[in-house]
Specification:
Elements lengths: L1 H5 L2 E14 L11 E4 L1 E13 L4 E18 L6 E22 L2 E22 L1 H6 L4 E2 L11 E13 L2 E10 L18 E10 L1
Antiparallel strand pairs: 1-3, 1-10, 2-4, 3-4, 4-5, 5-6, 6-7, 6-8, 8-9, 9-10
């Protein structure tokens, strides 16, 4: 309501792209012989562009975002652990835009995000490793993966729009420690980290 009183321009858009994620913690301390690798995921959702001034915008959004990490054993084993986490994510970005030409603007974006874990699994590969670990583990179950569902952090990004089409990069720095109580003994803190590439369209 506050934004509506001042906004010069209100537009709606959609955005999707690739996530490159990790959990910002060295799991070698918890699981010997495994190294953390970047996991590839995706995001898709919608946003509202609220023009406050000619150059300054506020952009709230709602996205489905796939995050997590991948652990790989050393060269003597093909064992892998994939942590797949699915979130409903709400970023609220402040966006300053520099006009480069009549149809092109440079965007500098930053702001907080809130997220809620919809579901996720610790998945073990190959099949003999899965059998050894007695099947997949539910990530947000206190008796299994014991990760906390709520997450919040800060986003930093930049991009360029060509008329209605937007192409951009973003880095999400998770502030919330999503490790549950079972990780206390290992003194482990787990934070979402995500670098993403997005393509969007504004109507």
């Amino acid at each position: 309501m506050v934004f509506g009183g001042y906004a010069q321009e209100v537009k709606f858009g959609v955005k999707a792209g690739m996530n490159m994620t990790s959990l910002g913690s060295d799991f070698k301390d918890l699981i010997d012989g495994f190294d953390q690798k970047t996991k590839i995921g995706f995001h898709i959702g919608a946003f509202v562009d609220l023009g406050i001034t000619e150059n300054f915008y506020v952009q709230p959004g709602l996205y489905y975002s796939n995050k997590g990490m991948k652990l790989e054993a050393d060269e003597n084993s093909d064992y892998k652990i994939k942590v797949n986490l699915s979130y409903l994510e709400i970023p609220i970005l402040a966006s300053y835009r520099f006009k480069l030409s009549d149809n092109m603007k440079l965007h500098i974006n930053t702001g907080p995000y809130l997220a809620y874990g919809l579901g996720g699994k610790f998945k073990f590969e190959p099949s003999e490793f899965e059998e050894l670990m007695d099947g997949d583990v539910k990530a947000f179950d206190e008796d299994e993966g014991d990760l906390k569902r709520f997450d919040f952090g800060w986003s930093f990004g930049a991009g360029v729009n060509f008329s209605a089409v937007y192409v951009g990069l973003k880095y999400d720095l998770g502030f919330s420690n999503i490790a549950g109580d079972s990780y206390d003994e290992a003194d482990m803190k787990i934070h979402n980290r995500n670098f993403s590439v997005s393509v969007g369209y504004t109507f």
